[in-house]
Amino acid sequence: NTGDIHATKRLDREEQPYYTLRAQARDRATNLPVEPESEFVIKVQDINDNEPKFLDGPYNAQVPEMSPVGTSVVEVKATDADDPTYGNSARVVYSILEGQPYFSVEPKTGIVRTALPNMDREARDQYLLVIQAKDMVGQMGGLSGTTSVTVTLTDVNDNPPRFSRKSYQFAVPESLPVASVVAKIKALDSDIGPNAEMDYRIIEGDGLGVFRVVPDKDTQEGVIILQKNLDFEKKSSYTLKIEASNRNIDPRFLSQGPFSDTAMVRLTVENVDEPPIFSPLSKMVVSEAAKVGTIIGTVSALDPDSTNMDPSQVGKGAALITVMDINDNAPVFAIEYETILCESAGPGQVIETISAVDKDEPPSGHRFVFSLTAETAGNMNFTLRDNKDNTASILTKRGGFQRREQAMYRLPVLIVDSGTPALSSTNTLSIRVCDCDLDGTPQSCGTEAFMLSAGLSTGALIAILACIIILLVLVLLIVTMRRRKKEPLILDEDRDVRENIVRYDDEGGGEEDTEAFDMVALRNLNAVRDSKARRDVTPEVPTLYCSRPPPYKITPDNGIFREFIWDRLKDADVDPSAPPYDSLQTYAFEGSGSVAESLSSLDSLSTDSEQNYDYLSDWGPRFRKLADLYGHGDSSNIFSS
Q1: Nearest to 242 by CA among 203, 188, 199
Q2: Is the pLDDT assigned to residue 540 strictly greater than 50?
């Protein structure tokens, strides 16, 4: 009704400083617009509702100790969210709440500065400041915020080094090795880091050349080191004046005095039991030909102790003995020469240059003389020229060397040294005749190329070699087949023999065994051979006849058995696969007839026999039937019904 615009909630300029509205007047009865739309911009007016804030706080800062008053330490900055263009809501003023009187802060800029001179880090090295920022130019009713500033004083070289004592005393054993640490001293410096680094030096005293002092980089101590051997009997004490000074000096503080200090160090040498010392040894010389027991030289020693000491010591020394050389080795070729002589070589051509070595070492150096031996001096092939520089050249006397005539020449060379007495040796130079190209490079040497030069091509040689290999293979096959072929023991095709090898204690299957041997296949053997007893088999089984046998006689049939068994025995003896123990070979072979004729028990009952067969009872169960038939028991019960 009135057209007034009201706020419907609390406004915050920091969230939205402007609002844009559109309005229009309409007829209340017809709701028709009575004017065009109008636009209204509402600006929110700021009030002081935000306190200043230090967005980068808390702060850490450093400043050198002993800095002058007003030295800048750090700048702090506070931010106020209120409108800086309207009133004093965002106008901030800085002040220090804690940290006075050492530091101050500029009200407008926020720069923290030192407020006192000669702030000493060694007295206090850290300060905690509280800085306040207040809006409304610091007036009453203004809002404020605070932050902390930690200020650390950094070190400067404002303190010189100082020894805690003016004199030091140490004891040193005279046996202390050179380069050993004798003692350590330290000057104190309140500064830290590079400002506390010190150098030490000996400025006075009688031990300037005997001792030296160096700084320890880690502890800043002065380390006294022995430079020469000590001898109690010669000098028993030393006095050193040592100076300690700062390495990095700040010129601003030179007015406070020198940045160095001195101290006296007394070193007392302690006597120890020393071993004997050899007098200086002269060089000794001995000939390598000296005999055992030859006196080479003498040595002497003395005890450096001025008083007799109880523990015994052993001194050691070194004697330098030079062995003088004598001429006891003859010169020889320097290397094993392999001399090549081309067939195209002409007379006077150098084919080799030789040199020599000698194990001896004459003082004036080696001098060798080369020559051909007397036996070869007049040869028509080669000559030798001594080059007078411990080398010699081998030259040809003629041309026309041919491998076919002689492929190798051996030339004896005599080498004499310059020793006293002079020694010599004869060395043989081997010269091979070779076919060479135009550049003198050997193509083929010796006799290996003769066949090629005779007209045989490489293909012909390969064909000959292939034929030889084929012949060797055929001979090998023939020999192998003959070794595998064996002569049959029985030539007749009907003589099929089956054999079993059994142990001596095997009695066989007896009458009940009908499958072990083929009785039909063993027959019709006519070969006769004189029997020869086998030495490793002695049959001990007594002959058994069920009836009175006729007188035993040697017949051709028995000879067949012996022949057959003997052949099998020989095969078993020479067979490498046979068992290593004695064996008995049993054969199912009867021959064409039996000497003992019938073995029928029925016929035996009708024959009056006086032989005693009681021993059959001891032969086991397989002979029990024969024992019952032929024993002394009552035979009338045999065929009872």
Answers
A1: 203
A2: no
